[in-house]
Amino acid sequence: MRKLLLIYTGGTIGMITNAQTGALESFDFDHLYAHIPELKRFDLDIHVKSFDIPLDSSELGMTHWQELATWISTAYQDFDGFVILHGTDTMAYTASALSFMLQGLQKPIVFTGSQLPIGIIRTDGKENLITAIEIAVATEANGQPILQEVAVYFEYALFRANRSSKISAHQFEAFAAPNYPLLAKAGVQIEWFKERLFRTSLPTLQANLSLSNEVLMWRLFPGMPVHTYEKALHFPEVKILVIETFGAGNAFSNPSFQSALQRFIAAGGKVLNITQCQSGAVKQGAYQTSTFFEKIGVISGEDLTAEAALTKCMYALANVPATELASFLSTPVVGELTRVNS
Ligand code: ASP
Predict the structure, then answer these.
(1) How far is CA 125 from CA 32, 88, 244, in A?
(2) d(CA 30, ligand 1 centre) in Å
(3) CATH code linked to domain 2-207
(4) Where in the chain is the domain with CATH 3.40.50.1170?
(5) Which residue intervals of the chain bear CATH 3.40.50.40?
(6) Pocket around ligand 1: residues whose beta carbon is below 6 Å from it?
(7) Fold assignment, 215-329
(8) DSSP 8-state secondary structure symbol assigned to residue 282
(9) Residue 203: exposed, middle, or buried by beta-carbon count in 10 A (0-12, 13-18, 19+)?
(10) What is the pLDDT of residues 300-320, one digit of tens each?
(11) Taking the complete model, does pTM exceed 0.90, yes or no?
(12) How far apart (Å, rounded) are the C-alpha atoms in residues 113 and 199?
């Protein structure tokens, strides 16, 4: 019988309403389990692991990602697939982080959650969980898992984890991956788009659990008080600055902004340029307003999502030598970016 590890971290799917405050609060896995009797009908050996205290995903951070990566790497040989139930708010961050921390995957890790709690009649949680499980144990005729990467399943669509973002706070279609097409679509059947699936070139799983949060992110905006922001670049703890720029990687030619970046880079810092547009890529040098970035050695993040850019930096700072950081950040590692401009 195929074995699945179901990990429950919290999120709306398992929440119930606090009668006093009216706010949704996390609840334990038994509550969730009681609402999905279908789980018992799977012809699968399902094991469950749960955070001691289930959390709203806004509470999760690096230590939780490390805990999840440790659980999976420890259980890796014993299970055919993994499903992680997670709040939707920061799911794309956790899922992106795991894609960098668990390289060489040859088994599926599927994240899912829901917009409505499982106890609500119109919940989207049931379908999301049941199909995520089916995806996590789906095999080719030769017994190999179809999916061999970290993915997010939500509302009939399967996305590559490090291409996904939460795009809606109220629609059931809460996720999208504007720069990479769907890996699979769930209808009456699960329709796989196999040519889009990631395949590792590594022979075995390589779990690298170290992370560093010596990263800053600036979303540029017209009228930005550069002198205030610039102060943060003087902290020695800041090693990478991610800038979310306009359009295809453009910014104002404010002299304080330019000299702050120049000083930061001269002192050994790295600057990674991603676009604040939902889709498309950075193309430094396409406009006069991005030529400066090319000149001073700002790294093009191409079509990285903000979630993938940040978690890739957090992974890279702890695992990649400083001399290789720039090329690591601009090269696809686990299918997270497309080299549009080379
Ligand atoms: N606040 C919740 C969370 O991210 C939202 C959700 O799960 O949909 O945990």
Answers:
(1) 10, 11, 33
(2) 18
(3) 3.40.50.1170
(4) 2-207
(5) 215-329
(6) 10-12, 56-58, 87-89, 113, 115
(7) Rossmann fold (3.40.50)
(8) -
(9) exposed
(10) 999 999 999 999 999 999 999
(11) yes
(12) 25
